[in-house]
């Protein structure tokens, strides 16, 4: 599966984490190697945490 098969980057990120995250990225969901799937942006979540 690649990024286009997910309805959103949030869903892709969840699947990415469920399958082991960057250490086990067999599906190639982290093409840029930043540890986040399909260009998922953690900024909104970081703002909530303060």
Automatic annotation (TrEMBL):
Chain segments carrying region Disordered: 16-35
Protein name per the record: Excalibur calcium-binding domain-containing protein
Organism per entry: marine sediment metagenome
Chain intervals with Basic and acidic residues compositional bias: 20-29
């Amino acid at each position: 599966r690649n990024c286009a098969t997910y309805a959103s980057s949030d869903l892709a990120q969840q699947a990415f984490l469920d399958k082991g995250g960057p250490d086990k990225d067999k599906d190639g969901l982290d093409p840029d190697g930043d540890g986040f799937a399909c260009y998922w942006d953690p900024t909104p979540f970081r703002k909530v945490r303060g």
